[in-house]
Amino acid sequence: MGETVLVTGGTGYVGGWAIVALLERGYDVRTTVRTLEKADAVRAAVGASERLSFAAADLTKDAGWDEAMQGVDYVLHVASPLGDENSTDAEALIVPARDGALRVLKAATRAGVRRVVMTSAANAASPASYKEDSVTDETLWTVDDPSLPAYRRSKTLAEKAAWDFIDSYDGPTELTTVLPGAVFGPILTANNVGTTQIIQRMLTGKMPGTPKIGLEVVDVRDLVDLHIRAMVSAEAGGQRFLGTGEFVWMRDIAEALKSRLGEQAKNVPTRQLPNFVVRLASISDPALKAITISLGRRNRHSTAKAEHILGWKPRPAAETVVECAKSLIAQGAVRR
Fold first, then answer.
1. Which CATH class is domain 4-330?
2. Domain range summary for the chain, segments of one domain joined by +
3. Which of 14, 174, 206, 243 has its CB surrounded by the most CB atoms within 10 Å?
């Protein structure tokens, strides 16, 4: 094919699957890692290929990004700086996410890259009131509010900074953003379970019950497919695309695992925890505190734009979570 794609964060969950999909489609792939010592771990996860190369670059530092962009046609910016998404220190998450996105974009424009496809989050296109039962699309921007979880604010502000930069830029490089929901699916290695930790915790029995939290489940393979479609489609430049999947409650996920995995899912809890119990527990558990804002919320996002323009269609949520669980078990990532 003769085209080179830079994937930021090759050690990440989405980054690893992006590398796999691009290699399968015949692209040359370069991926960034914070240090080149991590290259062997990436090769072990995605498979060795002479069309895969590495560049040392850290989203929190300027060094290495110009070199990483040399000869690159497209960029999939799927990486995020490391941080605790349950942190109450907003600036500790917002600043590196925003500055990292700008580092990638500035280096890409200096190199004349054709298009950067950046991973944002569906939470960057959600209504101000989390009590609303509504369906929103890409035209909505989340209003930044200090009361929102720091991680959600960081994704919104990083994407907004990226668009503000492109609006002030006069050159050939285009920007497209993809806004995923809850990303599950098979893992490539037990050393990196990514966002599948929720399924992992359910399988190990570490959850006493399921909170009334709704998730728009998207398979990591479908999410990567959406990124690649957005990368090559002539109509996708300058666009936002929601990449959410089917809306399901966590209890629905638990029941799907129970019904399809049998004995392997014996520790999965199906009892739904009352909202007041979750709120009480959140007083001493930061991880729970971050999700209380979503208890009982049924806000959903429309993927009509991605389906119409890009021909994208996500698979059913139950299929994704079951394959995710089977993968976690097969890779030895479930220890009771």
1. alpha beta
2. 4-330
3. 243
